[in-house]
Amino acid sequence: MSEPQKPWTVPMLAQARAEGRKLVMLTGYDASFARVLDDNGCDLILVGDSLGMVVQGHDSTLPVRVDDIVYHTAAVARGAKRALKIADFPFGSDGSSLEAHAAAVRFVQAGASMVKLEGAGHKLDTIRYLVEREIPVCGHLGLTPQSVHRFGGFKVQGREDAAAARLREDALAVAEAGAALLVLEGVPAALAAQITAASPIPTIGIGAGAGCDGQVLVLHDLLGLDTGHRKPKFVKDFLAEGGSVAGAIRAYADAVRSGRFPDADHAYA
Ligand code: KIV
User: Closest Cα partner for 157 from 181, 189, 194?
Assistant: First the structure.
């Protein structure tokens, strides 16, 4: 099936899912890489707060500021015309609906078509608040990196029955609050597949197995760069098979669309 060449819009996400087309997402932080992502089959570019670790050199995403996301979103938007740009709320910037709205307006004005926030609970009110004000939202559940201190590290989530049940409930609640997309990170593949089957909105996995509606990786991981951080099991270096940056992105996009990535070696049981 041929991929749509027109610029991605939020309604096209549900359409892709209905047509059984996998969504290809990568993180991006600057205009030059955004252009290469755009030209080589990447549907969605996430200006993730992972930039705190892979661009700024911190040990976690927690030091990232709203200004950083605005700056990098604007750069990505200048480089990518076709891919849908998603800006990530940094730690502490989505604590209240009003605060989140102020940041989200800046993200949209910088070129994002959607914003991403981690968690459920009190964040559900924020999701509703933003969606009612015309700001599309992507949820993010599972191994949410901003919860690193509560989790005691970057640990796979949802392994125990109670935790799995909570994740299933949270996923439905995030969709019910109005989110149009949901990232599932660091959860057992079978659980992510169950959540996806029950979800009214598309899911994007990272360390969540092949049963999701799409996949995302951190760009630096896809290119096999040593960022000074431990590489989780789900990371794959596509530069080795792609032979160039553009080739690596194409190899990843092909592998996601064909269902070859992630395989069992790059997923949690
Ligand atoms: O910040 C980020 O890059 C993310 C992805 C890893 C999902 O949240």
Answer: 189
> Residue 37: which of 258, 259, 253 has the closest Cα?
253
The structural domains of the chain, ordered by start, are: 10-266 (3.20.20.60)
- In sequence order, the 6+-apart residues with CB closer than 8 A to the CB of 80 are 28, 34, 35, 37, 38, 45
- Ligand 1 lined by 201 (C-beta under 6 Å): no
164, two tokens: 């799995």
- pTM equals 0.97
Instruction: Note the pLDDT tens digit of each residue in 7-59.
Output: 999 999 999 999 999 999 999 999 999 999 999 999 999 999 999 999 999 99
The CA 135 to ligand 1 mean position distance, Å, reads 19
Q: Would the CB of 139 count as within 6 Å of ligand 1?
A: no
Amino acid at the residue 190: A
